[in-house]
Amino acid sequence: MVLTRLRPMLYTRDLDESIRFYTEVLGFTCGARNNDWGWAALHLDDVEIMLAIPNAHTPFDAPKFTGSIYINTDDATQFWEQVKDKARICYAPEDFEWGMREFGIFDNNGYLLQFGQDLIMESP
Questions:
Q1: Start-to-end Cα distance in the chain
Q2: 0.70 cut: is pTM over it?
Q3: In this structure, is residue 111 part of a structural domain?
């Protein structure tokens, strides 16, 4: 048995606004949408995120998530420049001792999205 893919499903009260954030702010494409289900699938390169309006069987008052969605990129600085003036900032790009350059923003629902780039560490 092999796990082949992770596609987070994020709940939202406003599907249109969430699609707008991911497409206009982050550059995702809405590849599929079903208004009857209150669901959409968005993608950018190899990353896919699904959005959904919770159904009657799912208790939901507001987005709740104690972690973050962590997305790797090959150029955190360039992506930061594209999004920094369009999203609520959690933290600006920073190089960490574990070998990652990272920054964090919040999406329109308040979910924390972190973007990280592997730093190439050269030996002295």
A1: 42
A2: yes
A3: yes
Give the Cβ contact number of residue 105 at 10 Å: 22
Residue 1 belongs to some domain of the structure: no
Domain count, the chain: 1
Of 48, 47, 49, 59, residue with least CA distance to 15? 49
Domain containing 50: what range?
9-54+67-118
User: Average pLDDT, stretch 103-120?
Assistant: 95
Residue 4 lies in a domain: no
Using CA atoms, how far residue 123 sits from 23, 118, 119, 120, in Å, is 40, 15, 12, 10
Q: What is the pLDDT of residue 68?
A: 94
DSSP one-letter code for 22: I
Q: What is the pLDDT of residues 23-73, one digit of tens each?
A: 999 999 999 999 999 999 999 999 999 999 998 888 877 778 889 999 999
* CA–CA dist 42, 27 (Å, integer): 10
